[in-house]
Design goal:
It is built from no helices and seven strands. It is mostly beta strands. 13% of the residues are buried.
Amino acid sequence: MNTNSNHLSLNEEITITEKFDIKIKNDTDNEVKVINAGSGGSYSLTKNATTNIKMEEGDKLHYYEKGKKGNLILTATKEMHGKVQLLSKL
């Protein structure tokens, strides 16, 4: 009697990332465009308005100028969740 036994071993790692809201108030005199380098989403930050941006820990938010990623504004942390960040202070 010949018995062949096939065993399939799967090593699977699941990473769950938590998204949270970062609120940015544009307290400058100009409308500003930004891009989330993590998700690729771009946003217009209207003068004197607060914008909610969904980000994950470690995502980087940059200025977005002429279709290109500009200077770094912030790197997202969980501590920023739900708190208003003043653009002029970043």
